[in-house]
Structure formats: C-alpha cells, structure tokens
Amino acid sequence: MTPMKRDHTLRAIMLSTPIIWAMAFMFVPYMVLFTYSFWTKQFPTFIPDFQFGNYAQIFFEPQYVSVLLRTAKIASLVTFFALLMAFPFAYFLVFKVHSPRVRGMLYMAVIAPLWVSYLLRAYTWKIILGNNGVLNSFLVSVGILDEPTDVFLYNQFSMVVTLTYIFIPFMVMPIYTGLEKIPKNLIEASKDLGIGPWGTFWKVIWPLAVPGVIAGATFTFCLSFGDFVAPVLVGGPDGAMIANIITTQFGSALNWPLGSALAIVILVIVLGIIEVSDRFQRSGRIDLA
Predict the structure, then answer these.
(1) Per residue in 184-211, pLDDT tens?
(2) What residue numbers bound the domain in which 132 lies?
C-alpha cells in the first residue's frame, strides 16, 4: 500500500468512526421516535399509522401547554440565577486572583461536584429543604419559625434552587474560558486612555465575554429544560416538567406515540435554541471584528 493510499485509509477510518457512532446512537433512535410519533394509541397497545393527532394533542390540550410553559419558566430562572452567580465568580477568578494555584483550587471547587453522582447532588437538596432538613432546623433554632414548614420543598422554588446548584458548573466553565482569553493589554490600554473600571467593563470586558455567556446560558437552559430526575426528588406536582410527562407516557400510560411526539417537540425546541445561540455568537464575533 502506497503512503497516499495509507493516508486516505486512515482518514476514512477516523471519519467513519464518529459518523457510525452518530448514526447508531443519535440518528437511528431519533428516527424511531419520529416514526412512533405518528402512530395511533389503541388500547392496550399502539398501531402503525400516519396522523398528526399526537402533535395536535400536545399543542391544543391545556395540560401539555401548561407543562411546556412551566418547564421553560423553570429553565429560564435557573439560567438567570446561574448567570447571576457564575459571572461574578468567573470575573473574580480571572481578574482578581493573581495566584495560579489559588485560582485553580477555586475553579476546581466549582467543577468538582460534576464528579459526584447527579442523583446524590439532587437528593442533598431534598435533605436541606425538607421538613426536618438543615434549613428548617436553622430557622426554628433562631426563632424565625415556630415549627418546620414544607414551603421550601416540592414546588418550583426547590426546583430552581436544585437545578441552579447542579448546572452552575456548565455556566462557569465557558464564561471563565471567555474571560481568560481576553488580552490583558486591551484592559491596560483602556486604563491608559482614562476610562474607569465600569467603562472598561462595559466597553471591553463584557463584549468579549458575551460568547462565553451565551454558550453557558445555552448549556444551562437546555440541560435544565430536559431534566427529569430533580422534579421527581424535589419538584412535586407543581414542579413537574415535560421530561417527567414523557417518562410517564413511556411507562405507566403506555402511550409511546404521544411520548415520542413530546420528545420530538423537545428536540426541536432545543435545536432551535442552539441555532439562535450560534447566530448570536457569530454576530458577536463579527461585531467585535
């Protein structure tokens, strides 16, 4: 085999591996879901068909629209509060912590929870927010409450708190990377021109940090939007999200066509968000150029 043919063979192998992986574990399963989404539920099973009744049921029955809106609301709040905490932290690490060792330790303190079981992280907040949890015990001990309350658990508040804690590393990482790549000479030049700290932040740092913010917000929103474990542990009826409805359709309800249609709707929403995010990032880069 000649060197040229050998190179072509190696390239073909390198390219075929991810293509085969994507086909086997992404394209084929989604095509199966897409096909099922047009089938008809006929007790006690379902039959092949081609109709749009499942999609019509999702968008015209109030219960499904309500769950979709609730899911979007919770995911948006999680994204907002994660950004509210992640950006100052990343900014502090990049511009205020001058010791690489201390910076690395603080950064790892945020990333380390990703190595812990997701279920354990979610269950921790159930223990904290529960009737006999840490928060209730503290409020009773300091005299703020006369007896434990269940207001902190099994609602949208507990969902936002838990998901913000779980997904905040995905907000910190891209923002930290974006801020770290900002050339320090731009900030020094801004100071030399007599621009104050706030002016430097809004005119230099923030525009260059926007792509990282958009990436972090996209990660956080999409992951929160599709979560189904945390609602079971801390959400309750008021915190149920669309992924829990899908789980029910494939489980106890045995309505795979409707569950498939719901899954396809979520896929379209997530892909749309990613596309909008990508366009914003590209426009940001063009403006900065």
Answers:
(1) 888 888 888 888 889 999 989 999 999 9
(2) 56-288
